[in-house]
């Protein structure tokens, strides 16, 4: 069976700080991806850079901050970006080179099972035809509340969707360090991560460049999503010819994230990472322990409060009283019903109203997101 590699390349690797496309870098990365393609892999590229590529061309002096300005810049930049990729991939292979295909997705696409299944069928057909799908967020239509925030998350969702052999997330650093090596020469690189703990997350800082939106933390969060889907991830650098193949082979310049302890079935992958929560439920410490450590369902007695107006069958986010996200689940109650029974014992709930199921969220409809 042909193996699929998903590669995510960020804005800072493709554009300049002043804005505009760095065609030399796009040519280099296209060459690296073409080498994987010719080695027999199916290759999917998740690219950033539309806003960074377009803001100068449309007339902005600096990267815009207002949403409508970003969307205008992305509309211009996406066309420029795809033109550059198509020209670069055309130089490889026979009969006009490797075909590059554009796919624009939003968070809402992943939240709708039919739409994302249609997108998957398109990607699979492109791969079957030996094309390279180039995926980006559809910045011109995505709203703030429905945005991925960065393409690191998008790349992890795509890797899980296509059941990739490996997710490669490129950055300007050769992996995750105990501290920022640019500030501390004694910082130690983390070669391999089996579990993304609070300590691992603490090693990550903020956004690393002026042209992108993702820093090391967002890349680690993306690796977590990938790992939970059973897809190993790599975060690191590809700066010399052949580096991409080394990263795929497990000997690249960066940090590897293992999957031996993590593997969610597809249903729970959708629930945990693709769905869009319609509200929140705040739970007490006892309910937190039951959900995270006991493998139990969420009962009314452990609920403190709710946020949002949701319905039975909707996905909601569950948080503790410190506002830490614990996980997501499908609720069996209307929001108003939960308000009426929050904090009550099972016996008291049964006395007050008729309910089909006593569990607010059954454990089979729950996925833990807290480490």
From TrEMBL:
Tell me its EC number(s), please: 2.7.2.11
Gene3D superfamilies listed in its UniProt record: Acetylglutamate kinase-like (3.40.1160.10), PUA domain (2.30.130.10)
Q: Which CDD domains match?
A: AAK_G5K_ProB, PUA_G5K
Annotated ATP binding lies at 8, 171-172, 213-219
Q: Which GO terms describe its biological process?
A: L-proline biosynthetic process
Q: Its annotated pathway?
A: Amino-acid biosynthesis; L-proline biosynthesis; L-glutamate 5-semialdehyde from L-glutamate: step 1/2
Q: What compartments host this protein?
A: Cytoplasm
Q: Major place of localization?
A: cytoplasm
The GO terms describing molecular function are: ATP binding; glutamate 5-kinase activity; RNA binding
The protein's UniProt keywords, in alphabetical order, are:
Amino-acid biosynthesis, ATP-binding, Cytoplasm, Kinase, Nucleotide-binding, Proline biosynthesis, Transferase
Q: What's a Pfam family in this record? A: PUA
Which Gene Ontology cellular component annotation is one that this UniProt entry carries? Answer: cytosol
InterPro entries on file: AceGlu_kinase-like_sf, Asp/Glu/Uridylate_kinase, G5K_ProB, Glu/AcGlu_kinase, Glu_5kinase, Glu_5kinase/COase_Synthase, PUA, PUA-like_sf
Catalytic activity annotation: L-glutamate + ATP = L-glutamyl 5-phosphate + ADP
Q: Please tell me where substrate binds in this chain.
A: 48, 139, 151
* Family assignment from sequence similarity: Belongs to the glutamate 5-kinase family.
Its annotated function is as follows: Catalyzes the transfer of a phosphate group to glutamate to form L-glutamate 5-phosphate.
- What is the protein name for this chain? Glutamate 5-kinase
The record lists the organism as Paenibacillus baekrokdamisoli
- The protein's gene is named proB
């Amino acid at each position: 069976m042909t193996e699929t590699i998903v590669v995510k390349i960020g804005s800072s690797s493709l554009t300049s700080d002043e804005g505009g496309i760095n065609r030399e870098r796009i040519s280099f990365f296209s060459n690296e991806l073409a080498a994987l393609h010719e080695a027999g892999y199916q290759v999917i590229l998740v690219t950033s850079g539309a806003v960074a590529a377009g803001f100068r061309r449309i007339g902005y002096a600096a990267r815009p901050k207002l949403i409508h300005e970003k969307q205008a810049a992305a509309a211009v930049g996406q066309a420029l970006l795809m033109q550059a990729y198509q020209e670069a991939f055309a130089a490889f292979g026979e009969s006009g080179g490797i075909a590059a295909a554009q796919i624009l997705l939003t968070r809402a696409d992943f939240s709708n099972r039919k739409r994302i299944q249609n997108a998957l069928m398109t990607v699979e057909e492109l791969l079957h035809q030996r094309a390279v799908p180039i995926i980006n967020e559809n910045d011109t239509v995505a709203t703030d509340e429905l945005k991925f925030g960065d393409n690191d998350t998008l790349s992890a969702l795509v890797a899980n969707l296509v059941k990739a052999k490996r997710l490669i997330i490129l950055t300007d650093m050769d992996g995750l360090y105990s501290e920022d090596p640019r500030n501390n020469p004694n910082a130690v690189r983390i070669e391999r991560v089996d579990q993304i703990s609070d300590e691992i997350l603490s090693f990550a800082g903020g956004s690393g460049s002026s042209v992108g939106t993702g820093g090391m933390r967002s890349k680690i969060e993306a690796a977590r999503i990938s790992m939970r889907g059973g897809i190993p991830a790599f975060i690191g650098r590809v700066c010399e010819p052949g580096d991409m193949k080394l990263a795929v082979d497990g000997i690249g310049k960066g940090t590897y994230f293992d999957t031996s302890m993590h593997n969610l079935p597809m249903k729970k992958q959708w629930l945990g990472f693709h769905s869009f929560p319609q509200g929140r439920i705040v739970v007490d410490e006892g309910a937190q322990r039951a959900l995270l450590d006991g493998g139990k369902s969420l009962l009314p007695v452990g609920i403190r409060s709710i946020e949002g107006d949701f319905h039975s069958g909707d996905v909601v986010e569950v948080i503790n009283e410190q506002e830490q996200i614990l996980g997501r689940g499908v609720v069996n109650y209307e929001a108003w019903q939960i308000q009426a029974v929050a904090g009550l014992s099972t016996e008291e709930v049964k006395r007050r109203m008729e309910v089909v199921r006593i569990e607010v969220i059954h454990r089979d409809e729950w996925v833990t997101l807290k480490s």
